[in-house]
Every structure is written in structure tokens, then in C-alpha cells.
Write a structure and sequence with these properties.
The protein is an alpha/beta fold and about 500 residues long. It is built from 18 helices and 20 strands. It has two domains: about 220 residues, TIM Barrel, CATH 3.20.20.70; about 150 residues, Rossmann fold. About 35% of the residues lie in helices and about 20% in strands. The strands form three sheets. An eight-stranded parallel beta sheet has the order 7-6-5-4-3-2-1-8. A six-stranded mixed beta sheet has the order 10-9-11-13-14-12. The chain is elongated, with a radius of gyration of 28 Å. The structure holds 2'-monophosphoadenosine-5'-diphosphate.
């Protein structure tokens, strides 16, 4: 059941918020502590102005509330305006005011959500909880992990542990913060009775519109296959939109979710248990995931980076779809790369896949980098890996001297692999000394913005250009094929 949690200063604002999310939630929760004058509000208007499941959420510091305030909550419960009341606990034993309010709720047919927010879950599932949770009530856990070291045990001991349900009890959880995001999206899939959401751009939880439109929440079942992307940060990634749209168009029962991961060890001890079927891997984990692979394709070993993992019961297989993602758009312009001369600007992580792909396909490569030593070691490494003859890959600096090397080299292709020109560095040009003749094809891996300053300059000189988003899309197409065994429905993406 999707619940929209609203924290506003008046009930009128609550209604406005509900209106703007209409059709995206099954029920809502009003946080009484954010209302400026709760005692002056027209509470009866809730029955007239809202529909769906109604939850009243009481303040966290319940123990320190004055008696008249507690009395006010009591009256609210007696008016039967809500289906449930959420009572927050610091510990998991009812005492004093909690007990009183629970009794009132139960005698007026209002269910109780016992909301527990504690850091140490080693005692979970709290055997004595059996004594206090009635059939209508829900045991709710609020978790806010600071990273995967904390989240790993929470997933193992709390989220994947279904003991509470075997007691005939309903349980729900809300994992707040960036690390909790995938578990918010997957909460019902993982057995949470409620899926708590926040209004759009008001955090700390996923909003219900994204849940429905991006993650197709209503069609998730416990059998839905899980895919995702790991990185840090990763919540801005467009990959979930792309993959989920593909599953939807082909009627595949799968979902793709971003996992912000700061520590791979606890993540990989949980991943097969979720169970995850496939993962895209992005910065900063492309190199460090290699040690979790039982098998890797050649390009992964050659490049030293892996951006795709496919899980089976027995193994994790690693692929590098960046190489193909780069080559496919290039092959539209040059069906054969063999014998072409390619200038590569930059010698960092991104350049590795590019230099490998170009040299493997038979191109001659000139790598220019600000730090020449890095270009030299990349050239030496790829030369060795691909057993290239001397002179196939040459190197130089990214300055006037480099520009005169380019004059002699006369490249057919220029590939820009640095982060220059990428948002928020739109004004940067990695190689102002480079003069475009107009015959070269110029490929910039930066995709935000789509047209960099460097590409604009190339276009103005008459060059054919290839945008970075083409590589991004094509690497994802191969991932989709590896994950699902099906070709991505390309008609969903126009003009790339
Ligand atoms: P990535 O994985 O995105 O390639 P990286 O491994 O840090 O990131 O590599 C960044 C590349 O961009 C390097 O080639 C870097 O040059 P240096 O090796 O000299 O550091 C290059 N780069 C970054 N900022 C640059 C700038 N302002 N001008 C020129 N090159 C730049």
C-alpha cells in the first residue's frame, strides 16, 4: 500500500499536497507535529476532502508532550477520522503515554503502527513483539543507514528476515537517505506492508509519481526480476528510465533500480540474496568490482574495468559494454576502423576502453594527455595486451607541441575522453591549440551538455560530430541484451 507522508503547516496545505499527487497513492499520513496550530484545524474536513487510507502520525517526542496535548491526540483518535495511528517508539517496549494512546486507538477501532527507530537491530525480530502487535496493527521500522557497512546487516537481519510474518503479524519498513533509496522502491517486493513516500522533491523518501512512472511500482511482484546500477553518487542516473522503459515495452517482468554503494564488500554479500540478476556498474566501482567476478570477458581484463555484471546461481560474470557502446556509433561513420588514424585526448579511465577498442579494431592511435607519462603507460599497456607492432600507438602532450604532432598525424578521427566541457565546466576546452581541418570525425564522450564547446568548434569547422549520449545509449543496449536476452526496443529512443 503506497502511503504519501505529508508534513505541512496547515490542513489546507495537506489537502493541496494530496491533490497534486492524486492517483499515485493508496493512502496518506499526516504528521501532526508539523501543523502550526493542530488544535485549531477543522479535522472533520478530512472525511469530506480526502479519500483512501488515512494515517495520523504522532510526534517523535511523545514522552515529553504536556498532558493537554496528549489529551488532544486522544480526542482525535476517538473521532475515528483515521484508519491507523502511527506511534513512534525509541525502544520497543510500550510504556506510559504510548500504552494509553494504544488503548484508546484499539477501543475506537483505530489500528496502531508501532514505529521503531533504533540503530541497533541485533535483537530483531524482537520476540516479545508477538505480545503486543494485534492482527490489525503493523510493526514498522524506520532505518537511516549512514552507508553500506550499516545497511548490509540491516538488509540481512531486518529486510530479508520474514519471521514477523510467520507470527501472523504485518511489518513494514522505510529505509531513509540515499543508501535506502532502492529499498524504498522495492519495499513491497521485499514484504513491507506499507510503502511510505514523500511528496515530489520534498524527500527523504522516493515520491509516488516516480514510483509509478519510472519503476512501474504497481506491476512489481515477489517474482519480478531485479536489476540495477551501482555507483556513488548514482541517484541522478538516467539508466533506470532507459531499462525500465525497455522492460515495459517488451512486457518483461523486471525492474531496474539505482543502488548508491560506498562499500562493495557488504553490498556483494547481500546482492545474491536479494536476489539481483544483473548490475550496471559506474564510477567509482568499475575497477574494484573485478575481484567479485568469477569470469570476465577479454575486454574487461584488457581495459581493467567492468561496467556490467550478470548474476547466475553459481557465478558472477563481468562484461565491458563501453567498448562496444563506443564502437557502434563510430561504425556508422566508419564501417571499418582498420587503418584509420585516431587522435585520443586524455589517458584516464574512460580513455582506456576507447584506446583498447580502436587498437583492437586496427586503428593507429595518437594519445595526447596533459600528463604525458600517463599516455605513455596506457600506450605501452595496450600495445602489450593486443600484441601491437611498435608505432601503432604513439603519445604526446596536450599543448602546442601536441598540436604540431596532430598536424603530421592527420587524424581521421578525434576522440575527446576528458571531463573538460562537462557540466559544470562547460567553458573548458581540453585542447585549444587543436586546429580542426573539417575532414575529421569528432567524437566527444561528454554527454551533459550534449554539445560541448569542443564539439561546437569542430562543427563550425565542418567536421562530422558524434555525441557522447550515443555511446551511453549503445553501451546500455548491450547491457539490456546481456540482462534479458532480448534486443532493446530502439524505437523508444529517437535519433540516436
Ligand atoms: P575518467 O575516468 O573520467 O577518464 P580520470 O581517470 O580521472 O577520469 O581521467 C581524467 C582525464 O582527463 C585524464 O586524462 C586527465 O588528464 P591528466 O592525466 O593529466 O590528469 C584529463 N583531464 C582532466 N581535467 C583536464 C583538464 N582541465 N585539461 C586537460 N585534461 C584534463
Amino acid at each position: 500500500m503506497v502511503i504519501l507522508r505529508v508534513s505541512e503547516s496547515t490542513l489546507d496545505d495537506v489537502f493541496l499536497r494530496l491533490q497534486s499527487h492524486e492517483g499515485y497513492f493508496d493512502g496518506f499520513e499526516i504528521e501532526v507535529e508539523t501543523l502550526k496550530h493542530p488544535e485549531r484545524e477543522d479535522w472533520e474536513s478530512i472525511s469530506r476532502r480526502t479519500q483512501g487510507f488515512r494515517i495520523l502520525s504522532l510526534p517523535r517526542a511523545l514522552m515529553s508532550e504536556a498532558e493537554p496535548v496528549i489529551d488532544f491526540y486522544r480526542t482525535l483518535l476517538k473521532r475515528r477520522l483515521f484508519d491507523m495511528v502511527r506511534i513512534p517508539y525509541e525502544e520497543y517496549k510500550p510504556r506510559g503515554v504510548h500504552e494509553t494512546l494504544e488503548k484508546v486507538a484499539h477501543s475506537y477501532d483505530v489500528g496502531v503502527i508501532r514505529s521503531i527507530s533504533i540503530r541497533n537491530f541485533s535483537a530483531y525480530p524482537f520476540p516479545f513483539a508477538q505480545d503486543f502487535v494485534k492482527e490489525r496493527d503493523v510493526l514498522h521500522l524506520t532505518l537511516n543507514p549512514s552507508g553500506w557497512k550499516e545497511l548490509g546487516p540491516i538488509v540481512e537481519r531486518v529486510i530479508l528476515d520474514r519471521t514477523v510474518e510467520t507470527w501472523g503479524m504485518r511489518r513494514s519498513f522505510a529505509v531513509e537517505g540515499p543508501y535506502g533509496y532502492p529499498f524504498q522502491v522495492l519495499s513491497s517486493h521485499l514484504g513491507s506492508y506499507f510503502t511510505f513516500t514523500s511528496p515530489q522533491s520534498k524527500g527523504p523518501l522516493v515520491d509516488p509519481i516516480t514510483l509509478k512512472t519510472v519503476y512501474r511500482y504497481t506491476s512489481l511482484t515477489p517474482h519480478t526480476a531485479l536489476f540495477g546500477i551501482i555507483g556513488n553518487p548514482v541517484l541522478h542516473s538516467r539508466s533506470p528510465h532507459l531499462h525500465n522503459r525497455g522492460y515495459d515495452a517488451l512486457g518483461i517482468d523486471a525492474v531496474y533500480v539505482p543502488f548508491p554503494v560506498d562499500d562493495l564488500e557488504p553490498f556483494f554479500s547481500i546482492a545474491p540474496k536479494l536476489p539481483l540478476r544483473g548490475l550496471s556498474v559506474t564510477i567509482p566501482h568499475k575497477e574494484s568490482v573485478l575481484k567479485y567476478c568469477d569470469w570476465c570477458e577479454d575486454s574487461v581484463l584488457a581495459v581493467g574495468a567492468c561496467n556490467t555484471l550478470v548474476f547466475s546461481e553459481k557465478s558472477i560474470k563481468g562484461y565491458n559494454t563501453d567498448v562496444e557502446g563506443f564502437l557502434v556509433p563510430l561504425n556508422r561513420v566508419f564501417p571499418r576502423v582498420t587503418g584509420k588514424k585516431a587522435l585520443v585526448i586524455g589517458a584516464g579511465g574512460a580513455a582506456r576502453s576507447i584506446v583498447y577498442g580502436l587498437a583492437r579494431e586496427g586503428a593507429r592511435v595518437l594519445i595526447l594527455n596533459r600528463t604525458v607519462a600517463k599516455a605513455e603507460s596506457l600506450a605501452a599497456e595496450m600495445g602489450k595486451t593486443l600484441s601491437l607492432s611498435t608505432g601503432t600507438i604513439t603519445t604526446g602532450p596536450l599543448d602546442r607541441e601536441g598540436a604540431s604532432r596532430v598536424e603530421q598525424f592527420q587524424p581521421d578521427l578525434v576522440v575527446q575522453t576528458t571531463s573538460c566541457g562537462m557540466h559544470p565546466y562547460e567553458e573548458e576546452d581540453p585542447f585549444p591549440d587543436l586546429f580542426f581541418k573539417g575532414q575529421e570525425v569528432v567524437y566527444d564522450l561528454v554527454y551533459a551538455p550534449r554539445e560541448t564547446r569542443f564539439l561546437k568548434r569542430a562543427k563550425a569547422a565542418g567536421c562530422t560530430v558524434i555525441y557522447g549520449d550515443a555511446m551511453l545509449i549503445h553501451q546500455a543496449f548491450r547491457q539490456f541484451l546481456l540482462f534479458t536476452g532480448k534486443e532493446y526496443p530502439r524505437q523508444l529512443i529517437d535519433g540516436i
